[in-house]
Amino acid sequence: MRLMRSTTGLLSAAAALAMCTTVAVADTTIEFVQWWEPELPAGALRSIIDGFEAANPGIKVKLVSGPFSTTHDQIVAGAASGTLSDVVGLDGAWVNELAKQEAIAPMDDLMDATKFDRSQMADIIKVDGKSYMFPLVSFVYPVFVNLDMAKAAGVDKPPSTRTEFADAAKKMTHPDKNQYGWVLPLSLQVPNGAQNDVMSWVWASGQSMLKDGKPNVDNPAVVDVLTYIKSLNDAGVISPGINAKKEQDKLEEFVNGRVGMMIHSLALLNVMRQRNPNMNIDISALPAVDGYTGKRGLPYASWGIGISNNSSHKEEAWKLVSYLTSPEVNGKLATIAHGFPGNVSAKPDLSKADPLFVKAFGIFQDGKLANEFIGLPVAEQLQRDMDVELQKMLDGQQTPEQAAAATQKQWLAEFAKN
Amino acid sequence: MAAGSRPAAIRQNLSRPPRRTGFRQDKSRMSLAHEHPAMGPRKARPAGRVSYQTKMRLVPFAYVAPAMALFALLMLYPMVAVLRYSLQDRAITKKNAAFVGLDNYQTIFSDPVFWQAVGNTLYFTVVSVVFHLLIGLGFALMLNSDRVNPTLRSVLRVLYILPWLFTAVIIAIIWRLLLDPEGVINGVLMSLHIVDFKVEWFSSPNTALHALTFVNIWAGYPLYMVSLLAGLQGISRDLYEAAGIDGANAWQKFRYVTIPQLTPIMLSIAMLDFIWTMQVFALVWMTTGGGPIYATEVLSTYTYKQAFSQYQFSLASASAVCILILSLGVTYFYIKHQKAR
Lengths: 418, 341
Hints:
The complex is a heterodimer. By secondary structure, chain A is of the alpha/beta class. Chain A contains 17 helices and 16 strands. Chain A has 2 domains: about 210 residues, D-Maltodextrin-Binding Protein, domain 2 (3-Layer(aba) Sandwich); about 200 residues, Periplasmic binding protein-like II (D-Maltodextrin-Binding Protein, domain 2), CATH 3.40.190.10. In chain A, the strands form 4 sheets. In chain A, strands 1, 2, 3, 4, 5, 6, 14 and 15 form an 8-stranded mixed sheet that branches. Chain A has a 4-stranded mixed sheet with strand order 8-11-7-12. In chain A, helix 9 packs across helix 10. By secondary structure, chain B is mostly helical. Chain B has a domain of about 230 residues: MetI-like fold (Orthogonal Bundle), CATH 1.10.3720.10. In chain B, helix 11 packs antiparallel against helix 14.
């Protein structure tokens, strides 16, 4: 009897243990922090994740979603407190510092262990030779033109060179009607105007602000762009209030017909259509210096992905990363997000796409993605430093040469610190 | 009922001193039990067990323990942590950050932007507090005056308190739109021929700090208005009547009755407002981000940029400690003032 009881007890314990083990396997939950879910149609990201869970029984994914503006702070704080999610949505500008903070983990070992084909990715963001981020979806920043304003001003095609752009901007400017040719946001709150609206002119002509990975901001190509922007400001073709304008102000002014041209993310094409359905819009690659015939540099931003260094489920996290980078899923995500895929084999579905999106895909294929801030240390601070110097220049406190030299000095100091 | 007509038991109870209850009473019973031989030999307390007396002595601490634990967790620990970070080299971003003494303080004190932020913070705070007080007092007097129609007074009361109902984000959005170069304010000023060009309120280094301070004044005066209105309604009419009998005119009544009666409230709110305004972040961040150039850089935005833009958490902590010290200075006067009352 006693033996029987003991056996029963042992069996019960074994059953309980087996149950616990099963539950533990079934309940491996990984967190994925990102800002993408709110920017996609409701339920779109969740349905992709559901596909992952169906393909990987035993792994559940909890989406931790928030706006872009707070995700960065959340990641920094999470890394400091050891509570960072397993999979992390990344912007290229954050990678260097997060890698140095050891907040995100290099993925090279995981790639080697699973024989991941690196060549299928359009780009891999590295710090000190180690791979930290895959750009999953890229959003190019073309020039948007309000065709109605352009037509009324006698501009018959989107500008292709700097001269054409300045000419079109002047023609579209009517301060008495609150209409201006271009909009330039240099607010210090989100200082990406330096990247998207200023340095993009340099990259468009195949030029650079770096030399051997180090700052080279005072080179003639950058000074030319600063001089050009100052000339546009002096001509009064830029919508006033530059120093307090943010990225979202560009969109507001454009869809309300207050500016004729802007540089903005293609990702917001749908929003523009919704905000002003009657507006006729065209896009073009960023204007280059007159006579330039090389490939146009296209400024871009990415939805990048990486893995937390603190994660105790790195293998599961890697499974999610490789699932999202797979051609089929990546193409689907890019289509929903109105971006271009990070996997070179992925094909976005253009059959039902907006004609402008199809045109942008052509520009994307003809040009080359260019954003030299990605991977730089304290990239956001570098942009803010440049914004301050640009503000001084536009306020008449210094020349373009002085602005470039002052930025160079500050950038060198930041590089030395980091 | 007279004492003499009460039942004897009640009279007896009334004549006794009140019975001591609770802890002290139990203590006296215990000591009796220990001392009385008829109650048997005193039992030795097992080693390691806390005595009843000690337990009783700990009771008050147990009552305040939850509050103390919360205070330690939510206030004390973060403060000590920030203080510790400010003495380390690259805290948070560097594992095993080294102790560097006051180096971080030296670094921020040698940064001209920090001193500009200190100056801007003081201007923003002092001007805000002064105008909060003046406007709040003015509106409170208006709402307390019998000369204003009661219905109009009720409507004004609702209107005047509106700014207080908005969050900083909403206030920032509203005023960014109003003060846009193409916005309503410029439109009105130009149509009245007060200005003849589109003023870039938040975008020009010459006007940004003043515009920001104006917005903060607009957002903050209702606190004063409500508090001072309550204070005004609490002033006895007798004082005004007595002053009237002494021949005081309206100004003299205001100067020698109203102001002295409101002074304690005004001082208390002004000191609290000083502390709060010195730490304003959201409004500055959402409107100007500390720019243009460094025209509206205040200590809170300076600290934020050090932390989340430059990842210099040690420098940010040093800057935060400076804000803490400035706030503590005002807090000291506030507590002293409260004690004096």
